[in-house]
Design brief:
By secondary structure, this protein is an alpha/beta fold. It is built from eleven helices and 13 strands. The longest helix is centred in the N-terminal third of the chain and has 22 residues. The chain is globular and about 55 Å long. Bound molecules: NADP nicotinamide-adenine-dinucleotide phosphate (NAP) and ligand G4F. NADP nicotinamide-adenine-dinucleotide phosphate binds next to helix 1 and strand 5.
Length: 324
């Protein structure tokens, strides 16, 4: 039985990746920070909490990482922990850098110190392309991050490449475009829209305040994207891969899908709120996943419309149950 360590186990991707690895016979160690309340809702939602060995640690604390790595001797480490909300990264740039940039370096250092043969996955992001230099972004597209989050991720990305080149480590970076699901955080725009649409339908909310609805994203389903993470670590050589659907949609059109599904016209509810615009916006992202398709045999299976409907259904159920 292979052992995998996942940082960010309580997040969206951590939960889906844990579910996927458990299904594939792995022992899963979940690295989570101690909080004053237990924070395993997503693992509970997938019904897998009791199947994971949960262990306390903070990604900014190298000693906890070394201790856990030494204790469990994982074959694979997936570094998903991050301050991952772009908006917050302007309010908390130093915390974002400590967690998202230096945190990744801590994981790489722990591997180097404990056992450099441990395979490493870094959660890189399409946010690194930022002010895009090519219409469709691939592994060779130059980066131009637009937020403290994007800059932090770029540091972690290059550290991953550097540890691979310097120490011959099996270190891979998945450059993942936006991916969502019914367990996406409420602050991200897709879930904000599906949750609000459900509340409006059920008479619990009147309006939905949004920022730049002309921004466009290449949205896929998190379940598809965690498969790609695993495939990267099973590949013959460590490498970096873009994971995307190859299609882009505006926030406006994504809203229309969600509201139409509930028989509502989004124009009657959406209010443009200037305070939700970002200091520097990533206007459009669209990824080219050909390398992953060719070398990993990976392909996105779930389209945006199917995913948004799944998210609306899940939110209707939850809001109906909790009335909030
Ligand atoms: P998420 O839901 O925000 O999860 C982030 C995880 O990081 C949570 O488990 C969080 O723990 C943990 N974390 C935060 N600070 C930590 C710390 N100091 N020590 C230990 N753990 C800490 O993010 P996600 O959507 O699953 O994304 C997973 C990773 O992929 C992130 O690195 C993100 O930046 C990256 N990424 C995401 C996307 C996307 O579209 N989802 C695209 C590209 C890349 P708490 O639960 O305690 O907060
Ligand atoms: O859903 P978002 O907050 O995601 P964003 O900024 O693209 O970041 C996500 O995807 C990245 C991959 O590219 C990840 F690395 C990152 O961790 C995160 O998962 O915003 C999407 C777009 C933006 O252009 C934003 O300005 O939606 C626009 N938007 C418009 N109104 C809004 C809102 N975003 C949010 N969160 N809330 C709004 O009210």
């Amino acid at each position: 039985m292979k052992t995998a360590l996942i940082t960010g186990i309580t997040g969206q991707d951590g939960a889906y990746l844990a579910e996927y690895l458990l299904k594939n016979g792995y022992e899963v160690i979940g690295f989570m920070r101690r909080l004053s309340t237990i924070n395993v809702e997503r693992l509970d939602y997938l019904g897998i909490t009791d199947e994971i060995i949960l262990t306390d640690g903070d990604i900014t604390d190298l000693s906890s990482m070394v201790r856990i790595m030494d204790k469990y001797k994982p074959a694979e480490v997936y570094n998903l922990a991050a301050q991952s909300f772009v908006g917050t990264s302007w309010q908390q740039p130093i915390l974002t850098s400590n967690v998202t940039a230096i945190g990744a370096l801590n994981v790489l250092e722990a591997i180097r110190l404990v056992d450099p043969s441990i395979k490493f996955y870094q959660a890189s992001t399409s946010e690194m392309f930022g002010k895009i230099k090519e219409t469709i972004q691939c592994e060779t597209t130059p980066f131009h991050p637009r937020s403290p989050y994007g800059v932090s991720k770029l540091y972690a990305h290059w550290m991953t490449v550097n540890y691979r080149e310097s120490f011959n480590m099996f270190a891979c970076a998945g450059i993942l475009f936006n991916h969502e699901s019914p367990i996406r955080g409420l602050e991200f725009v897709t879930r904000k829209v599906t949750h609000s649409a459900a509340r409006i339908k059920l008479g619990l909310q009147d309006k939905l305040h949004l920022g730049n609805i002309d921004a466009k994203r290449d949205w896929g389903h998190a379940k598809d994207y965690v498969r790609a993470m695993h495939l990267m670590l099973q590949h013959d050589n460590p490498d970096d891969f873009v994971i995307a659907t190859g299609k882009t949609t505006s926030v406006r059109d994504m809203c229309k899908i969600a509201f139409d599904y509930l028989g509502l016209d989004y124009k009657n509810y959406v209010v443009i709120d200037k305070s939700l615009f970002r200091p520097a916006e990533v206007e459009i992202l669209i990824g080219n996943p050909v390398k992953a398709e060719k070398h990993l045999g990976w392909k996105a299976e779930v389209g945006l419309e199917e995913m948004i409907k799944e998210m609306v259904d899940a939110d209707m159920k939850r809001v109906n149950l909790n009335r909030r």
